[in-house]
Amino acid sequence: MTNWDDLRFLVALSKTGTMTAAAKSLGTNTATVSRRIERLSETLGMPAFVKTAEGWRPSEAVTPLIQLAQSFDGELQSALNNRIVDSEAEPVSISLGSLPIITAVVLFPGLTRHHRMLDGIRLDFSDRMFKEGLGENDLVLQFNRPAQGRIVARRVGSLSFRFYRHRKSECVSNWVGLSDAHDDQPLMRLGHETFGRPPRLRVDNIMALHRLMMVTRLPGALPDLLAAEEPDLEPMLPDADPQTEECWLFYHESRRNDPGIRRTLDWVRTCFEDAERAAAACAPDR
């Protein structure tokens, strides 16, 4: 490869999975991305990417190039952030992908309580559902430890869940839950066992589930932190132990010494410390 600029197009398409999203991230158009990838394929003598149901995936021919480019990009970004994170320059932009429930009940409260920890940082939040890897994010926060790869993974905290019901509802035969894509998760399996049937209604995220429970007055599983905000909700089984979901944050190994990453990681950990103290305070008495 004689045109190093092609690496930018390789990395963008591998992160986003679509020509349109890659073009947007690069500030160009879809035709240019397609042309660059096609030219690279001709140079290699084989397709650089393979079209799948989930989007474009890099072929074995370009995987080493992409890894090299990602490492270089990460190290370059770390070096730049080292120079500007404590200066009067524009804040360092960090993209954080997270499940909506973690963002809402754990991270957002920390934006006011611990805003000083983010001096020099501008956070861009994005929702992450059923995606693997970093994608376009600098950091990703999710339940369960991520698969191994060229990443650094840190356990940052946990969320406790249990089944709640509306105090004014007598219905305990039906329940509401998450979409069938979540059926392998422990809480959904517990719901199937407890009620002996699939949920009557389904939604695709916990924030929507919370709203559905309040409207229908049907029971469902919520984080203790979120349920504590609703005086009309009570635990179905107050003496039972909650289901605890570990929360992990990860980033590319080339960003290990990036001060923007480190500062954001410390802030996330502090947010979880607050959340876990609050959850312990609102746990049902036994």
From TrEMBL:
GO terms for molecular function: DNA-binding transcription factor activity; sequence-specific DNA binding. It comes from the Bacteria. Residues 1-59 form the HTH lysR-type domain. PROSITE patterns: HTH_LYSR. Pfam families: HTH_1 (PF00126). GO terms for biological process: DNA-templated transcription. Belongs to the LysR transcriptional regulatory family. PANTHER family: HTH-TYPE TRANSCRIPTIONAL REGULATOR, TRANSCRIPTIONAL REGULATORY PROTEIN. This is Transcriptional regulator. It comes from Salipiger abyssi.
